[in-house]
């Protein structure tokens, strides 16, 4: 059974109120569904640096950085937050992507000293939304061991692994604890001044309204990182990696034909996603995520669309029996 955090000092409640707490930067949530991999071996940073899009070779213990693993055609396998510790790394993956990612990396591993262990079921993870929550958490943590050196074999009973997310315009951070430390972590999160526990529906609405790409809607092998708004997780100066030539050529010659945009729908979305989008009969892209909570009187969504066909204010069709969507903004970084 997937481990989770039981809220202490607060409970989840009305989704709309939780959603507003997230937007205002005063929320904490259980993110244990995300994958977690411990990586050891002296070549761990060098190999992952050479295989993924961002420059991570220089990470020091306690640092974290977002990077993307892509196919040789530059298509997304997964966006990963790499957390450096003294003798190991922790990779935070999309839910359920741990084993697939390990097997993909194994294909490119020859003589390198690198070892993987999936620790998703051995740990829990909470997320802090907002600068106030992050600073309050770090202040509350001061008497406790929070360095990546604190527990070298994994998050210990009293120790937490803390990692800021570097791929979002909003301040976000994740905190990993062992199952034995789950209650302590939940109590600490719930005791933060002004913190509101939010559930999965509210967090998904926050993710979508914030323009954060997720799996499987946006993070999949149909798209490259630049189409998904992940330019901040791509280094254009570090040199070769799997798929680098394709991504560099797309950027250099302006061949990125699709981009991630915010959309809004006046009605709740019930059809399976993704859904094809058209504009005046021409194929425009795909609706990839829809929130189940109202924002400004409409339901927010994300779509990956042709740059030449979909601009803010444009209405896109989703089929004769479904409501259309309105393009409300372009995601920075797309």
Write structural notes for this entry:
With 334 residues, this protein is of the alpha+beta class. It has two domains: 15-208, Probable tRNA modification gtpase trme, domain 1 (Gyrase A, domain 2, 2-Layer Sandwich), CATH 3.30.1360; 257-334, Elongation Factor Tu (Ef-tu), domain 3. It is built from seven helices and 16 strands. The strands form three sheets. Strands 12-13-14-11-16-15 form a six-stranded antiparallel beta sheet, with helices on one face. Strands 8-9-7-1-10 form a five-stranded mixed beta sheet, with helices on both faces. The protein starts with 14 loop residues before the first helix and ends with a strand. 46% of the residues are buried.
At a glance:
This protein has seven helices and 16 strands. The protein has 334 residues and is of the alpha+beta class.
Helices and strands in order:
Blueprint: H1 15-23, E1 27-30, E2 35-40, H2 44-51, E3 64-70, E4 76-84, E5 89-93, H3 98-107, E6 115-118, E7 123-129, H4 131-141, E8 161-164, E9 172-178, H5 182-190, E10 196-198, H6 200-209, H7 244-252, E11 258-265, E12 275-279, E13 282-290, E14 299-306, E15 315-316, E16 325-330
Parallel strand pairs: 1-10
Antiparallel strand pairs: 1-7, 2-5, 2-6, 3-4, 4-5, 7-9, 8-9, 11-14, 11-16, 12-13, 13-14, 15-16
